Amino acid sequence: MPETTLHDRNLYSINIGEIWMDERKIFYSEHKDEDMVINLISKLRDIIKVKGECNFRIQLFDSGNKEDKDYYNRQMNLFLENTNDLKKIFELDFFFDSEGNCFSYNNYIEVSKNDENFDYWFTLFLRKFKQNIGKIHDFLDYQLLKNFNKNQSEFSTFLKLCFRQYSEIIPLKVIQTSQGWLDKKTDEYAAKNRKNKEGIKSNFVTKLSFKLKDVPDFNDYFEKKAIVLPQIIKELRKEFIEETTKIQQLKDILSGTEIKPKNRINWTGSFKELNMFVSIINYDLRKIEPLKNGIWETTCCCFTKNGKEIEVHQLSKANGDEGKRTKLYSILEKI
To answer: What's the pLDDT tens digit per position in 86-145?
Structure first.
């Protein structure tokens, strides 16, 4: 997105004054649902009383001269006489709060994500581009940067919720144009991910499996461990791997051999526990030839999770309880 100018900020910043002016035009030109209009006026008054500038306060009457008092009375009477007439409310363009202070609806108040009813104001501001849908992509780009700190996933979810929540007030062409923007961003994100993955793959060669360090003859080594390996498998079966796991499967993933998909070990513990399993044998115990990169890709070649393929991010970003680290350590140090 090119650098945003002051004009762009005025054009794409969500502000109450512009929403009010646009809603006035809609009110006079279209049949409006009365409840919807009452809801709009209520929300406008709430935010203007908190963040807007006051036209004049009750002090104008309390401490003003005769001219001030007369002016105050005329405005207050106008407001009270027309308080139940929606058309007159839009014509008057001002209101009094419960304390007797007067505010204009045409108040420039910039709305941000932290404001109450942000989704409502966002939707009303978005739909004003129905007369110029070519500006919608720029508006969404600006809001992604301004209010969502470039978090595409969060903004996409927010936008879709707005479409569902306020579908009755958003013109179809606005939804379709916005959806086009979403599709474009999704494609860009997917392309970027593919590029990143290709870049990662170029930096390492994925191992077929883990390989025990300083073991010249695996047959001889496993013969010497003939008593220990069944104990290791038995302990892992209790909480971490499928009960039908064979000793040969454990041997295979520690031999640097290619693991056929059907022979991978089915991990039944948590992703965090599998993360710990690999970290312990690689970093803590240094049982295997060190893997400086590609460690989680290698893990995916050796394990499934409850019978399903494992994705790298599920392991690399695994969170959870580390309460079983000591138990895993005591099992794996026997290898």
So the answer is: 889 988 899 999 999 999 998 889 999 999 999 999 999 999 999 899 999 999 999 999
Q: Tell me what percent of the residues of the chain surpass a pLDDT of 70.
A: 90
DSSP label at residue 225: T
Structure-token match 């302990």, residue found:
235
3-state secondary structure of 85: coil
3-state secondary structure 229-280: HHHHHHHHHHHCECCCCCHHHHHHHCECCCCCHHHCEEECCCHHHHHHHHHH
Local structure of residue 2 (DSSP, 8 states): P
pLDDT in tens, 243-280: 999 999 999 999 988 888 889 999 999 999 999 999 99
Torsional sign, CA 197, 202, 206, 212: negative
Nearest to 304 by CA among 324, 276, 274: 274
Q: Which of 268, 269, 265, 299 is nearest to 282 (CA)?
A: 299
Q: Which residue has the tokens 């494992």?
A: 310
Strand blocks (E) in the chain: 54-56, 94-96, 102-104, 265-267, 303-305
Number of helices (H), then strands (E), in the chain = 17, 5
For 10, 187, 270, 272, 273, the CA distances from 321, given in Å and listed in that order, are 49, 36, 9, 7, 8
Reported pTM: 0.55
Give how far Cα 229 sits from Cα of 133, 157, 289, 331, 334, Å: 68, 49, 19, 10, 8
Determine the Cα–Cα distance for residues 15 and 209; give it in Å rounded to an integer.
58
